[in-house]
Design a protein that fits this description.
284 residues, alpha/beta, 4-stranded antiparallel sheet, 11 helices, 10 strands, 39% helix, globular, binds adenosine-5'-triphosphate, binds magnesium ion
Length: 284
C-alpha cells in the first residue's frame, strides 16, 4: 500500500447486476450496486420489501447469479468462484437467516450442528468439542445445550444457536438477513446486544439486512438505503436513521414504528404528506 491509498476493504461490491430468470421472463433485481465493507465494520442494508436487500446478501454468499460487476473478498474476485472455492470461502463468509428453525437441521443435536463444520474442515473431535463449548458460552447458552435438539428451544435461543453456528468457524464476514425480525422486542434486544459484543470480541464484519431502521441504528456503523435494486443513499448510521437526505429514506424512517403514540401519529401524518412527493413511493 502506498501513502494516500486506502487499504483494500474486506468486501468490495462493484457495479453489481443480478438478474433472475432468462429472456422475456428475466427480472433485474440489482441495477449496478457498489458497496464496501471494512474489516470489523457493520453495514446496514435497509429498504422496502422487494428492493433487493436479500438479493445483495445472497450474491455475496454466491447464492444469486451475478450477470455483471464484481464481488471481491479480501482482494480476491469471488464473483464466479467455483463450488469448491465457495465451500472453502464458507470458512470466512457465513450467514444468519431470519428463520432459525428452517436453517437448523432438526435431526442433529446442537453440539453436532456446531461441531460438524469444524470436523468436516479437518479439526480434531476433541478440539471441536472445546470450541463448541466456548461458542455456546459466548452466545450465553448453557453447555448442556449441546445435547439437545433445535425443537427444544425458543425462537430467541434458536437464533443464538444459529449465530453460534455462523461464528464457530471464526469467519470474517457474516451476512445477517433480518436476524431479529421473527423475535419479540425483548428477545431482539438480547440478540442485538450479543451481535455487538461478538463483533467487539472477534472483529467480525456484518452485512446486516433489515427493514427496521431502529434495529439498524443500534448496531450499524454505516447504513445503505436500497430502492428498486439500487443504493440511493449511504452514510453514517446515525445520520441516515435520524436525518436522511433522500425523500425515500425519509419515508422509510417515518414508517418505522416508535413506542410513543403522539410521535407515532406525527410520523404517520408526515409519512402521508411525503407520499405526495413525486417518484418517492415505490410500488415494490
Ligand atoms: N429467486 C428469485 N427468482 C425471481 N425473482 C426473485 C427471486 N428472489 C427475489 N426475486 C425478486 O427480486 C426482487 C428483490 O427481491 P429481494 O428478496 O432481494 O428483496 P428484499 O429487499 O430482500 O425484500 P424483503 O424485505 O421483502 O425481504 C423482488 O422483486 C423479488 O420478487
Ligand atoms: Mg429479504
Amino acid at each position: 500500500m502506498t501513502a494516500g491509498q486506502a487499504p483494500d476493504p474486506l468486501l468490495r461490491v462493484s457495479d453489481l447486476i443480478v438478474e433472475y430468470g432468462h429472456g422475456r421472463r428475466a427480472h433485474r433485481a440489482l441495477h449496478g450496486v457498489d458497496l464496501d465493507i471494512a474489516a470489523g465494520e457493520c453495514v446496514g442494508l435497509v429498504g422496502e420489501s422487494g428492493s433487493g436487500k436479500s438479493t445483495l446478501g445472497k450474491a455475496v454468499l454466491g447464492l444469486a447469479p451475478a450477470s455483471a460487476g464484481t464481488i471481491a473478498f479480501d482482494g480476491e474476485d469471488i464473483t464466479r468462484a467455483s463450488r469448491r472455492r465457495r465451500r472453502a470461502l464458507a470458512q470466512d463468509i457465513q450467514v444468519v437467516f431470519q428463520d432459525p428453525y428452517g436453517s437448523l437441521n432438526p435431526h442433529l443435536s446442537v453440539g453436532e450442528i456446531l461441531a460438524e463444520p469444524l470436523t468436516a474442515g479437518g479439526i480434531a473431535v476433541a478440539e471441536a468439542r472445546t470450541r463448541v463449548a466456548d461458542m455456546l458460552d459466548r452466545v450465553r447458552l448453557d453447555p448442556s445445550t449441546a445435547d439437545r435438539y433445535p425443537s427444544e428451544f425458543s425462537g430467541g435461543q434458536r437464533q443464538r444457536i444459529a449465530i453460534a453456528r455462523a461464528l464457530v468457524r471464526r469467519p470474517r464476514l457474516i451476512v445477517c438477513d433480518e436476524p431479529v425480525s421473527a423475535l419479540d422486542l425483548t428477545t431482539q434486544d438480547v440478540v442485538l446486544d450479543l451481535l455487538l459484543d461478538l463483533q467487539r470480541e472477534t472483529g467480525v464484519a456484518y452485512l446486516f439486512v433489515s427493514h427496521d431502521l431502529g434495529v439498524v441504528r443500534r448496531i450499524c456503523h454505516r447504513v445503505a438505503v436500497m430502492r428498486r435494486g439500487e443504493i440511493i443513499e449511504i452514510g453514517d448510521g446515525d445520520q441516515i436513521t435520524r436525518d436522511p437526505v433522500h425523500p425515500y429514506s425519509q419515508r422509510l424512517r417515518l414508517a418505522s414504528p416508535v413506542a410513543d403514540p403522539v410521535e407515532q401519529r406525527r410520523r404517520r401524518e408526515a409519512w402521508l404528506a411525503l407520499r405526495e412527493v413525486p417518484d418517492v413511493y415505490s410500488a415494490g
